[in-house]
Design brief:
The protein is of the alpha+beta class. It has six helices and six strands. β4 and β5 form a beta hairpin. The N and C termini lie far apart (about 50 Å).
Length: about 200
């Protein structure tokens, strides 16, 4: 019985990995319209590593176009990030009545990986009085060359070098007032600066 359970577990894992590959291939196909042809292989590698640890059930709730946008913006920004630089972006919903990503406010951070970062960002967002709908938090090793992303791979890869960048994407309810967005951005900058 244990052997059977293990076999089914391995089959389930293989099926889940295959399902993720199919989804990421669909997102990657859309990327051909948004990303320069020369940058497409690097972007597809980034896309795979960006979502490989995310909940597949949650990923399936988002249309491929939304998954593309959620990954494309950090990919564009992380290449130009200088050592020690903290990138933060807090945006209101594109359309508060729309389903999915367009109906949620977005918080994005990119900084060197450090302890308590993910929890601190989540607490700051919840302290702003809103609930979190979805998060993605990959930690990637990246190599940059003259302000451009040159190589990206999973942080767990044995013998890997490059800087470990922690990328956080949070989708949450819209904040109560327009002035709350820059306030949350300043709070995040302070909180992460203290870490």
């Amino acid at each position: 019985l244990r052997g059977r359970a293990r076999k089914y577990s391995m089959n389930d894992e293989a099926a889940a990995n295959q399902e993720l590959e199919v989804l990421l291939n669909r997102v990657g196909a859309l990327a051909a319209k948004r990303v320069d042809k020369a940058d497409l292989p690097l972007f597809r590698a980034f896309l795979h590593h960006y979502y490989e640890m995310a909940s597949q059930e949650t990923l399936k709730l988002r249309p491929p176009g939304e998954l593309l946008e959620a990954a494309a913006r950090p990919c564009e920004r992380v290449g130009g990030r200088k050592p020690g630089e903290l990138l933060i972006q807090v945006r209101p919903p594109l359309d508060a009545q729309a389903p999915g990503s367009a109906g949620f406010a977005t918080v994005r951070t990119a900084v060197e990986d450090m302890p308590l970062l993910y929890d601190s960002v989540g607490m700051a967002v919840r302290d702003a009085g809103v609930s979190i709908d979805w998060t993605v938090h990959p930690v990637l090793r990246v190599k940059r060359d003259k302000g451009k992303l040159n190589e990206v791979f999973a942080v767990a890869r044995a013998g890997s070098d490059g800087e470990a960048d922690s990328l956080i994407h949070v989708e949450c309810e819209g904040l109560a007032r327009p002035e709350d967005y820059p306030l949350l951005e300043r709070k995040l900058r302070d909180v992460i600066g203290e870490l």
